[in-house]
Amino acid sequence: MKGVMQLIHALAFLAVAWAGVPALAQSTSEAAPEWVRDQGPAQVAGRAVTHEQDIPYYEACAREGLNDSECAGRLIWFKATAGNDRFHTYVFQQRIGVMIDWFRVLRSDQRGDRFAAWGAINDPSCCTPGSAGCPARDKDETYGFDWCPGDEQLLAHVGKTGYRDPACDFRDAPLAKLDVHGPQDQRQSPCDLKFGTSTGALGIRKFPNPRFDRERWIAVNGSAGSWEGYGRRIAAAGGDEEAAKSHLWDGSIEPPFLIGTSCGSCHIAFDPLNPPDDPARPRWENIVGLIGNQYTRISEVMVSGMPSNTLEWQMFAHARPGTTDTSAIPNDQVNNPGTINALINIARRPVFDGESVLKWRKARSCDGQPADACWCEPGRVGKCWSKGLHDETVHHILKGGEDSIGAIEAIQRVYFNIGSCSEQCWVNHLTDLRVVDPQQRGYGQTAFDIGQCRRDCPNFRAIEDRLQNIFDFFVSAEAHSAELRVARERAIKSFNPRAEYTEADFIEDLENEFGDGAVARGAEVFAANCARCHSSQPGAADGQTAGLDFQRIDEESGLRADWLGNDRPTPVSEVGTFRCRALHSNHVTGHIWQQYGSETLRAQPPDPNIAEPADGGRGYYRNISLLNLWAHAPFMHNNAIGPEICGKPENRANDFYAMRPRYVDGSNIRLLPPDEQPGCLAYDPSVAGRFDLYKRSMEALLNPDRRIPKVTLLNEDVTLRIGPRLWDGTDKEKLLGFQLTIPAEIDGRGVTAGTIGNFRHKEFVVDLVQAKLAPDAVEARLERRLGPREGKQVLAELKEIVKEVRKSPNGLVEALKKRPHLVKQVYSSCFAEIENAGHRFGETLSDADKKALTAFLATL
Amino acid sequence: MHFKRFAIALVACALTAGCGQEEKRKKQEFEIDFPFAPYGEAYSAKPDFAALEHDHPLSVDDLYRITPELLSLLEQEQVDQIYARLSAGPIPDGPYEGDLFFPRGISGKLRLSEVVGGGLKGLLVNVAGRKLDAIGEILWKGKVFYRDQRLLRNRIEDLKPLKRVGLVDDGGSTNPLTKIEVGGHDQWLLFPARLYCGQSLLDGRRESIIIDYAFTDELPGYRRMPDMMAGRDGFAIRDEIRMVRPGFYLGRAYLDRAFVVNFVLWNDQAAKAGEAEFRRTGQVAEDCWSGTQVHRLDVAAQ
After folding, report:
1. Could you give the angle at the alpha carbon of A522 between the alpha carbons of A517 and A528, nearest 5°?
2. Contact A252 B41 (CB under 8 A)
3. DSSP helix/strand/coil, B182
4. CB of A556 less than 8 A from some CB of B
5. Most buried among A173, A236, B33, B116, using CB within 10 Å?
6. ipTM, 2 dp
7. Which residue among B119, B126, B131 sits closest to A769, beta carbon to beta carbon?
8. Rounded to two decimals, what is the model's pTM?
9. Residue A37 confidence (pLDDT) above 50
10. What is the distance in angstroms between the Cα of A817 and the nearest Cα belonging to chain B?
């Protein structure tokens, strides 16, 4: 292995050294990138490299031993935006109405603080203009961003057309021999993968904006490298209660770059086996692509241009590091941030036979079937797709088992999470929070149509034609589990290459810490108490766990045979953890991701022990894998069990934990005083740091009574405005439509940040209006939902509110303050409050057994 | 051109007993062979625009059947189905006539402020409405496009409605009101706005031309009153338009991102200049991103 690495580095060195020997350079065409023209194509471990920016990716392929398909998939996963640069530059801002201040996140002068602030992982190949060895000398050359490989071409096209995306030179892996659409290679042009160049943060990519007007930019900002005028807050004339705006809202100003994101923007992470010495300055070998960035604050990134007293900031910016609410944009009014799923040992992940799946499958022809059941791509031969309902063997992918029509399609849907094909395929299916008329488009979601998207979005086809490559990457060596013993051994070898750290050494260390025989005893405790849900071995789910070997290696894959989770659904009331994620509804019939949910999923009965709406297969959590638990604390789908972690950035304006301490007095859900707040643990991706966090989290997990309750609270009053407003320049603001102010506290009790996101305000407005106009219809609806007694009571309250509001047109706020249960329960999608409750399994174990279990789990 | 008679005809119509029947007949005649997709009342029963355009493409002849008067007779869903199948076309240049029409189901006799209130009228609406109504009478009427500067100003012949509600600041000698002459009439220029290509708030599949008043206070000729009323601290007005055919645009107006009213803009000269070529090819120069779904516009056989 060592010899291979030396060879790779030697080849890379030769490629760079080639720059000094222009006579050897291959003849080039006009289309060839400047780097190739200057230096000629390089070879990295036998793979031709056209773009300098690809060298570290191919080096990683060689380091991980990836084959052509896995390597192609890796490159796509890390770099392909599939056209979402328009989403992150125009659609999110103008259509959804949420501003991202990309400069605040990516400004090169704060590159060293970027990880601490945003959890973003710096691209090792990029540099700050003016720093030693950086090709760019001044921030004006890069418009204030990092300089990254490929920027010679990209920066020359800012404000111009004609940029040739590096993805056009992507070298596809050979088409799979048995591909139904083969043997002729008919894949969509790789140009539609759209790579651009790095912004300096891995997974966030940039593209030259042909509409950029340099003269106007300088007039707004003072210089090319400044974004000061673009992002500067402008106070509202109506007073402090109004949110400040900035020129980010001004769609007439075109920034120099369109910003796109790849799947890697959330999934690229530090390698637990080889963490960086300095997280702000990682090397490529510290980086892996599939376990998920446990520090990302992608939600804060997405609202980085919003003031904190806006609905959008309050809705987005409270996910813990490493979590995000993927239904915040395709909004289902269920506020539910969740972790980025760690993709480990996928080859051993459980699958489920005989699930009923309606989906499109590859076909050679359509034989006269209607277009909505079968479609052949124009200009191709025998490249068709046929839609039908069949029993299939599938994974249960998301937290509640959603994305259950196939692993390939689950990967496909990730591209919509990151904004790809938004204009062509899905923004028209979203809920518009401002539409309260049930007859108008936008009142609720409608179902995304995979067939339509395939037909109309070339970026969809570019990804779809290469999904097998991405899946192959998922099951590649890069997704293999990271054992703590190996991590410790590597850490030791970094100081002493000849040192060894054997399995016996490892067990000995664990037993020194957790007690004699702790690992063996922990295995017994695990089998008796945990394996029913957290083992994929036959019989375990039925309680037949005696004698199971959790360490056995599967001969075929070379992986641990047990995936340490069975992925079966468990009712949320049984798990008892924060239930909002289990109530996520985007895969319900008629909702946006309906086509990515199996009929089997939707046929699951609701959990009878919860009061919130839980139809359509909702109300469950799948039993997750405990693989590499030592590296993935804190725990649960929301990272809430265990210490709070934070980055402690130098720029205090980006210290998001300081804005949102979480520990509360459970009796009144109010924040504990600062001197009683446990505080947050600074990010530490080192082996020792991860293990320390693991132990603290295990302590919290197994001792639920000692957990200090955590709740993410509103940190200020927030006004939800439905309908337009008027400030007439003289009087205080007048309102057209109405507004609801959600106070940060009601009757001395704190209000959760999720209250707003979970408030089904549309249903409330319709019921309120109809309480006056059609009370019988409202009564029938309420009684169906709440039962006769409560239904009648709520109707009476609605009628009272109508009276109060007629007397006092701005009285709705007061009317609701008097009846907080309407917002917090009756019209709430989820009214859970304590985020670190539940999963009390194991609390009755003895202290010794708890230690033993902690020791054993560290070996998995 | 019949456009100019449109507003007058509607007023006359309102005074005539048989007008309702005549409107109904015109609407039915139009609907007979105009390609609308079926739809129901609920939001979920409306067709997806991508499917609509794929299954029910418009022809150039269809576009030449559309008139401002007919649009005002259609149900809002029908107006939306037309709008979604249009492209942005070129950013207009020069003076355009205009008129607004309310979503069907809402009486045209209502004032704009009442329309904004909608079903919530008298219940949840605190209407500071006189000012809005005065502005509504202006904003979606005549406009002047300054294509090269990507600016727009609204043309106003009569300042009295604004003066009545105290919204005109004459600016004195330092910032005098600007006038232009259109068709032999003096018109005041107010409410400057930016023009750019941007997102439609109805249909994301291709861009629309955006008329954005958010930062009106930064534009040449801005005067606080009445211009700020359209800006980010006032009604936060954002219009979007797409081209029906050369010289004729269909628009949607939003207040603080909430849809309130449709409007049309037309210029007879531009219409005449572009008709022959458009009828022949169905093509115009597009300034904005036109999406990746094939924009089908059938051209009649020559």
Report:
1. 135
2. no
3. strand
4. no
5. B116
6. 0.91
7. B119
8. 0.92
9. no
10. 16
